[in-house]
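Hi L.,

You mentioned the student needs an example of a multi-chain input paired with its predicted structure. This one should do, with 928 residues in total across all chains.
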Amino acid sequence: MFSRAYKTVVTVPPLVWVTVFLLLPYLLMFCYSFWSVSPEQAIVHSWNLENYKELIQKTVYWQTLLRSMGIAVRVMIFSLLLGYPLAYFLSFCAGKRKDLLYQVVIIPLWVSYLVRAYAWKTILGSDGVLNTLLQYGHLTRHPLDFLLYSPFAVVLTLTHIYTPFTFLPIYAALEHIPRNLVEASHDLGATPAQTFWKVVFPLSIPGVIAGATFAFVLSLGDFLAPLLLGGPSGIMISNIVVSLFGAAYNWPLGAAISLAMLVIVVGLLFLSERLEKKWSFS
Amino acid sequence: MSPASESQSAPPDPSRPALLSVRNVAKAFGRNTVLRNVSLEIAEGEFLTILGESGSGKTTLLRIIAGFESATSGELWMGAERLDHQPPYRRRVNTVFQSYALFPHLTVEENIGYGLRIARRPAAEIAQRVSDALDKVKMSAHAKAKPSKISGGQQQRVALARALVNRPRLLLLDEPLSALDANLRRQMQVELKSLQREVGITFVFVTHDQEEAMVMSDRIALLRSGELEQVASPREIYSRPATSYVAQFVGHTNLLKGQAQAGIVRCASLTWPASLPNGPVLFSLRPEHVRLAGKDKATGIVRTRGRVLNQAFHGATELIRVECADGLVLIARIPSGTGSHNEVELEFSPADAALIRDSPERD
Amino acid sequence: MEFLLSTDPANVPRWLMLHAIAVFSFLYLPIAVLILYSFNGQGVGGFPPHHLTLNWYRILFADGPIWDSVLNSLQVAFAAMAISLIFGVPAALALDRAHFPGKAFFRRLVLLPLILPGIITGLSLLMLFNITGTKLSLITIMLGHGTALISVATTEVFAGLQKLDRAQEEASLDLGANYWQTFWRITVPNLKLSIIGAALLIFTLSMDEIAVSFFLIGRDNTLPLEIWGRLRRGITPEINAVSTIIFAFSLITIVLWYSLRRRSALGTDVGMELVESSNRDAN
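Structure written out for the whole complex:
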């Protein structure tokens, strides 16, 4: 029913815009990763694989990448451990208060990321809330200094920030499970635990995969929480990229690392799409 | 040649000039052919029903006339004007949608005035015409209501008023009664028919309900798997079905398959004289033409005995299925209150058996 | 307690409830701390807070750079909203109604910034601006936010289009309105909620965005970057005050949004749709 003119008008402007401001920049990043920097700090537009060689040969880069992935995996696991039971509780046990509680989970997302990260600094600092409480209760004599400026602080903060993101798709998946399936399972003699493991959980797997992907991908690329709370041992790969684009002034190497990240992320998205399809039965 | 070409080419009422002609229209969605070679003349002021099962292509044909789909091939002409190249908003054709498609954000009044406002009619004229239209469909009391606040039957009237207020040359109705319950539906059939007479606008009505088509239409175009099976008045469709498909689709019937030889038709154990060329023949015999045999046998009447398989009560009449000799099963419509039967003798007049063509199997 | 039993015949395990309470506390602890400390006489240090004061708010209101950055952020957010809607709404219509080569790729590309770490989008745009010799300013941030958040507008409006009865638009065309009139009189009013929802979400996300802005910043700071600069410098309790104010504004926005949704039966959940469709389509 839509004329050719209509289709052209709605298609061409977004297509052009997205090509110029999204596709072109990504391609540019790809190009940059094969260029290099001259001693006079000018970009040399000659094509070579030096940046990728450096990425592989210098342990600091791939070790930081591995450590970042380690942090991201921990954030993912903790977010799932916090988010899944919460989603199950809301979906199956909260009755009429479901919608209200759902909003309560979402509201922290509206509070500035930066400010929440900063609040954790207030909580974890050596004269912060937690340490004062611990000393007050005579649980420690001296403030615990590993709380702040450590990978622990980064994982804690990122878990705090990404738990609602993990919760959302799981909750959506649980909400889509027809309730009569649960009733049918009970009717056929399954206990609540059996019903959960044999009916509810398998049907919620696409949500779990989506939530896990969110938590992993978003925390892998984070560079603010490590800067604010991570200390030297909490440095993540994006921090290296930031410094390469800043003080260290090596954009091509930065682009190569970013591209490595991009490949990992897009690969993961592809994988999670496959897995979600495999586990979706509708 | 299509099996229905004979009746299809029968002109509409010659006293009425053709308003819309559909010429060799075909439509395919990808590899799926929905309409093939449909030709149809729609006369000025007539009530034409496109009747067919779901998937017969009737809604697609309607949407092509409205301009929401374009035909893969073929032409539409409205008088001397080629219609199929016009976008829907330039056609003097309006539609009553199956879902009514009332705009939820506009009031009843605003919905009805939508087309007139788009056409930039003067405000006073719009107000007048909208209020007349509201009167006509008895919805004046609900002028300021939003569509979600009125009942299904009322929404239906508003949809009708919204289309008619623009004085289209042709009004298309896409199963507009299908969402209503049975009682309201019968009432609306009558109202719609009298409204059509009153306004004199040509109605093209799409339905899958053969009874509805019978009650309302001047002519019925019966569509089957994208081809027209027969176009004729309800009476003719019923009493002179062109094909076995039409005969079965419209009401109950007995299909009698037999052989004609030397002026005698032989159908299972039944025989009667008929001047037909030799070869296989097919008759449609309506159940109401099959009677319980009386005491006296008139000349030319065919009689047969059989065992009653079942008997179904239909109010004033009952339908009985009777197994006769040689595996022939006849359905007869008999008056109620004759008691239950085990074995009966049936009779019919061969003149009531309409000679039809066999519809080839399709799709 | 009967509400706990309403959907599940079995009793809710005790640990599940305790777990839920624990997670809620975890999510709200930092928010509570920041609100509390915005009134703390001693600034950021020490526990429990004492000498409750409005001093930080007084300092905040006298703080010129912060308010400049707030104004900058507002400009950026409105511009981002305009860009993402101007291109995101047609993109949704195109995805719903048009067929063109590379459509699947286009869809993934549009949605990519939603799931991709902001640093990648920010850096790639930085390279574009660098190579074209564009001076970094608030405008480059607007372009960055606008482009990245097209994903939000497209996702929301696309979800709205899936629920829109196509016959509505057909009826409008049938009644003589052309495509342009139909778009403004029928399509937009029907998508009102999706569009408003998307606009609110874009606005909020832009106000809080830092990863993309971080690389595209010129001389003028946005609010998050101003806050970031101060956090890097050290202890600044007025940040708690400004955060508390932002939180209050966010709450008001949420309440407004939900009352708007409740008034219309066609309510859709913006966040939910975003998440559902981004994990369905983004990859």
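You could point out the following to them. Residues 66 and 226 of chain C are 7 Å apart (CA to CA). The two ends of chain C are 42 Å apart (CA to CA).

Best wishes,
N.
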